[in-house]
Write a structure and sequence with these properties.
The chain has about 130 residues and is α+β, with helices and mostly antiparallel strands. Helix content is about 25%, strand content about 35%. Strands 2-3-1-4-6-5 form a 6-stranded antiparallel sheet.
């Protein structure tokens, strides 16, 4: 399978930006190194020295009694951005910072994803649409 690299031009990325807001609320959790919670289906994980960070549905975390922080909504930026694109996330995170909105970005191979405070997700969507110009 041949992989395509994605867009690197910042103007093209911003012009074709199509954010999609996922309807569910997600949370960030952590479990000690080596502990597996097979009943969870995290959308993202990151291994750190202190433990495994999980991004999971808030309902799933609550069902298994897992402590959770940062209730958030997941926005997918559906433009196929290159992992080597310069300034794309900086432009977006800078815009959100200027409005006092925290964001936890995650880059996948095809798309970038934003986890933003659940109560401000609609505002973020409006700002992203305005950024497109």
């Amino acid at each position: 399978m041949q992989l395509t690299p994605g867009e690197t031009n910042l103007d093209a990325l911003l012009r074709t930006l199509e954010p999609v807001l996922n309807p569910e609320v997600y949370v960030f959790c952590t479990v000690p190194p080596g502990q597996l919670l097979l009943q969870l289906a995290p959308v993202a994980t990151f291994r750190e020295a202190e433990g495994l960070t999980l991004i999971v549905l808030a309902d799933e975390a609550a069902q298994v009694g897992l402590a959770a922080v940062y209730p958030c909504r997941w926005i997918t930026l559906t433009v196929h951005s290159s992992l080597e694109a310069v300034g794309f996330l900086a432009r977006i995170t800078g815009l959100l910072a200027a409005h006092g909105i925290s964001v936890n970005p995650v880059s996948g191979y095809y798309h970038d994803h934003l986890f933003v405070p659940a109560e401000r997700a609609d505002e973020v969507m409006q700002l992203l649409h305005e950024l497109r110009g």
